[in-house]
Amino acid sequence: MVSYSDRSLAEAADMAGVKTPLEYAVFQNHGYMGLYGGLKAKDIHQKKGLKKSQRILDHMGSTELAANLFRATQTDEKLRRENITGKEQANATHFEVGEKVRKTIQELGGTMPEDLPTQKRSVKQIENEQKKIKIETKKLED
Question: What is the pLDDT of residues 55-72, one digit of tens each?
Answer without folding.
Answer: 888 888 889 999 999 999
